[in-house]
Amino acid sequence: MQTLLVLLNVAIIISPANALLSAESAKTIQGQSPRFNATYESTIQNGKNFDLLGINYSGVDYFNQINFTSKLASSGLTYMNNKPNDITFTPTRKGATTAQATDSNGDIFGPDSVAERTTGSITADWYYTTTAGSESLLNATQKAQTFCELAIAGVVPYIKVGGPIILKTSYGDPISQNYPDSTIAITKNPQNKFNIELNDPVCYASPSLTYATGVYDPGTPLKFNPAAGFIPQATIANNFPTMGGDGLFFNLVVAGVNVQAPGITWSATSTPSASNVTATVAAEKSILSSASNLNYRANTMVMVTLRGPVASSFEIGATAPKFTGATTIKVTGTDTSVTPNRVVASYQFQIKNWYVTRSTVNGLLTTQTAWCSGLGSYRIPTASELTTATGLGWTGITTTNNYQRIVGASLFGEWGPVYAYSKTYGGIAEFYGTSYWTSSKVGSSLFYVNNLGTISAGSTSFNAPVACRSI
């Protein structure tokens, strides 16, 4: 009898009304859509790097610059020899965590919680920033050029992955949230950018390249490119320039970093610190664009200007500080937008000889010799110190009567026509002359050298400017 009563009680509890309640509870609970947290949504809307999108390179997924740079550093790739087509990649993504996204219903974010809106909506490709500040895709021709060739054109390529995505949970209703979505004030696609950071980002040191092709080209492609300048060498002492004068300047052509980017600063230091030869460096337009065949590109070029001893006047009796000797100058580009600050480019060269000019003053060889001697520690240079040429009985290191662009061989061979740096062309150097006296002669022929490195014969009554060389 007791058993029968228990069964009757159970039957009463499971009534039709209670059965209806159980059925309703089995339905999906209505709630709010999942959302990225405020930081991530701000990242998306402000176009910053969204680290749930990445690239797969050489079979490995990369979601941040540090890890990708580390991989590239061990790849053997160089700016000089490699091109964008040598770096192949595909877009990839990873799921969100509860630290990155939230769901008011407590639903779970799985490994596939970040998905494409539609098949192929997340893409990865090569881009660059134009000088006007807009973003542009690399075309097929650009992808086939080396990074240094692109730097000459002012192009700094980077990889961008991005596109419309869906944030979804494993359960819940609604189960997903679109990005972008104007109803939640997100109007931009998530994206992540990857710079190409390889070793040795300085491609060229470029003085005036007027008269750099043809007979002026030494034919040493690993040292000099007549369309771009001198190529950095493994030994600092072999880098351009080795000879200097106040106000002479050149461009560094830099790959892999936009030299104008916010937070990028440039500096130059001299060793020994007591040296009286220094340099200034700035990411600004160089006047060489009007005096050479290398067009200035704001995104990839910085201008380095030498400063050092000058004459107290251009009159007889003038003096000049003694050149303190071989000076190593290091130019450094630093990214100050990150902590700790990070060096993005550096270039070193050693000034071994210094020239002080008498500006526009022409004079007899005897007069100019006296002016140089009066400076204190300077003298008239020989023909071979101004040019590499052979001519009129004088034997230089090259066979034709003109300079060739060779580091360490001669003043004009390094710098080209020195008038290109003068105030006439907007510079600050006092190198105005087109021909300069030398102390060299063969027989009764007194030699002077013009800005093309050509040796010519002058007489005792001939007037020419002078650039005095340090002793």
Q: Tell me the number of helical segments per DSSP (H or I, 4 or more residues long).
A: 9
Radius of gyration: 34 Å
Main-sheet strand order equals 8-7-9-12
The amount of beta strand, in percent, is: 25-35%
Query: What's the number of extended β-strand segments?
Result: 28
List low-pLDDT spans: 1-26
Describe it.
There is one protein chain. The chain is α+β, with helices and mostly antiparallel strands and 471 residues long. It contains nine helices and 28 strands. The longest helix has 12 residues, at 2-13.
Briefly characterize the structure.
This protein is an alpha+beta fold and 471 residues long. It has helices at 2-13, 16-25, 38-45, 65-73, 140-143, 147-152, 365-374, 383-386, 411-415; strands at 35-36, 53-57, 60-62, 90-93, 101-102, 114-116, 123-129, 135-137, 158-162, 165-168, 176-179, 191-195, 202-206, 224-225, 229-230, 243-245, 249-254, 264-271, 278-282, 301-307, 327-335, 342-351, 353-357, 378-379, 435-442, 445-450, 455-458, 467-470.
How would you describe this structure in keywords?
about 475 residues; alpha+beta; Mannose-Binding Protein A, Chain A; 3 domains; 4-stranded antiparallel β-sheet; about 15% helix; disordered N terminus; signal
Layout of secondary structure:
Elements: H1 2-13, H2 16-25, E1 35-36, H3 38-45, E2 53-57, E3 60-62, H4 65-73, E4 90-93, E5 101-102, E6 114-116, E7 123-129, E8 135-137, H5 140-143, H6 147-152, E9 158-162, E10 165-168, E11 176-179, E12 191-195, E13 202-206, E14 224-225, E15 229-230, E16 243-245, E17 249-254, E18 264-271, E19 278-282, E20 301-307, E21 327-335, E22 342-351, E23 353-357, H7 365-374, E24 378-379, H8 383-386, H9 411-415, E25 435-442, E26 445-450, E27 455-458, E28 467-470
Keywords: Signal
